[in-house]
């Protein structure tokens, strides 16, 4: 047992040593390597009052470093679900990724069995805490309609960067409200990249992988086949949109059986305009434009299509959300037909490619 643990620790050391940690401009390291003692000091020996959150992978603490203001330090539980492979993947991904809507990785510690990640501190917590009544969310008040659209747009921009701009492109694979963090002003950033992996490249349309993610957010095609595509993230994004619109959790075990799964609950409501209000967060108190609501629900519906090839491209989603956000709470002259037209063009182009291929 001990030899296996030592082998894993050696693997971490070698992998991280081989990473290109220079930013390519100044020659300065893009991430720092911290000692375990430094992070003990930063968190006052991982004091319980410093805990920001806890999950299956470990605990996140608020810490203070001499040359930083505040930081978030994720200490991985050796018995948790995030192993050596995911730890290395997270460091690798965030060393390469630089975008305003991705949480910045400041550094890491890989010392014996201790594996920790140091991130910029996001002072307004997670979207989950705001939507579902955690203490921080209650303190800051209800997210208004425009803020919810802005959060969705920020997340879509982050996904567009991962899917389109990064080389090689990445599938995020664990999109959910607890992984969307907010800084002051409600700027949203994606965090937690342990499940991210390189996506299909060139002529490949999918990659086959073990199934990872969170129940309630994973695309059914990914669960059933293990085939991971960029459209897997699009389905998860649709679930997040439903959560932003409804104020309901993707899966809520406190509800009756027929209301536990948000996507299953929402599908018949989405198809019937006369019932749309049933899915809207009552905390919004009718302070939203009806046409803007139809547009957001339309986008979510397209993202949640059970046929992955019919889900929209992330670039089209960004364009659609920019349009909805630009209108804000004003009365809008168009319904979500604008997005439908964009999607139809993309779908027609896909069908054209398929004919040529066949």
Q: What report would you give on this structure?
A:
This protein has helices at residues 2-18, 36-42, 84-96, 127-131, 135-140, 145-165, 220-225, 230-246, 262-270, 290-303, 314-327, 337-357; strands spanning 32-33, 51-54, 58-64, 70-76, 105-111, 114-120, 170-171, 180-183, 187-190, 197-198, 207-208, 227-228. Residues 20-28, 332-342 and 353-358 have low confidence and may be disordered. It has two domains: 2-120, Phosphorylase Kinase, domain 1, CATH 3.30.200; 127-352, Transferase(Phosphotransferase) domain 1 (Transferase(Phosphotransferase), domain 1, Orthogonal Bundle). Strand 3 and strand 4 (70-76) form a beta hairpin. The radius of gyration is 21 Å and the shape is globular. The protein is of the alpha+beta class. It starts with a helix and ends with a helix. InterPro entries: Kinase-like_dom_sf (IPR011009), Prot_kinase_dom (IPR000719), Protein_kinase_ATP_BS (IPR017441), Ser-Thr/Tyr_kinase_cat_dom (IPR001245), Ser/Thr_kinase_AS (IPR008271). Keywords: ATP-binding, Cell membrane, Kinase, Lipoprotein, Magnesium, Membrane, Metal-binding, Nucleotide-binding, Serine/threonine-protein kinase, Transferase. This is Probable serine/threonine-protein kinase PBL5 isoform X2. Belongs to the protein kinase superfamily. Ser/Thr protein kinase family.
